[in-house]
Amino acid sequence: MSVVVYVPRDAAALSVGAERVATAIAREAKSRGIDLTLKRNGTRGMCWLEPLVEVVVGSERYAYGPVTERDIPGLFAADFLHNSAHALQLGRVDDIAYFASQQRLTFERVSVIEPTSLDDYLKHRG
C-alpha cells in the first residue's frame, strides 16, 4: 500500500521551496524503494511553517514543518512516513492549536484535497 504525502503547491509554499521539497521526497522514496503517492495541495495558512509536509498514517494526517530539501534524508531516516519522532514533527494536523481554533467555511477543503483531482473532488462530495 502506498504512503500518501501532501506538499503544498500554492504561491506561498512555492516561494519557500515546496517544489524542491516535493522533488526531494519523490527522489528519496524512489531510492529507498518506497511506494509513495505525492499529492499537491494548497497551504493551510501557517505560512511560517511552509513548506508544511503532511503524512497520512491510518486515517490521520501528521505534519512536519517547515521542511527544507536538506531535511528530507533525515526525515526518511527517522521514519517520518510512520509518524516517528523528528525535530520538525508537529503532531496530528487537527490538534495543532492554530487549526483547532478555526472553523473554515469558504476554504474548508484547502489543503485537504488535491485541487486538480476529480477523485478528491468526488470523495469529498464536490
Tell me what the structure shows.
With 126 residues, the protein is of the alpha+beta class. Helices cover 28% and strands 21% of the residues. Strand 3 and strand 4 form a beta hairpin. It starts with a strand and ends with a helix.
Enumerate how many helices there are, as a single number: 5
**Amino-to-carboxy terminus distance:** 26 Å
- DSSP strand count: 5
Q: Compute the gyration radius: what is it?
A: 14 Å
Q: How much beta, percentage-wise?
A: 15-25%
List keywords for this structure.
alpha+beta, 126 residues, five-stranded mixed β-sheet, globular, 5 strands
Topology, element by element:
Elements: E1 3-8, H1 11-15, H2 18-31, E2 36-41, E3 53-57, E4 60-64, H3 72-77, E5 89-92, H4 97-100, H5 118-123
Parallel strand pairs: 1-2
Antiparallel strand pairs: 1-3, 3-4, 4-5
Please outline what is shown here.
It contains 5 helices and 5 strands, in the order E-H-H-E-E-E-H-E-H-H. It has 126 residues and is α+β, with helices and mostly antiparallel strands.
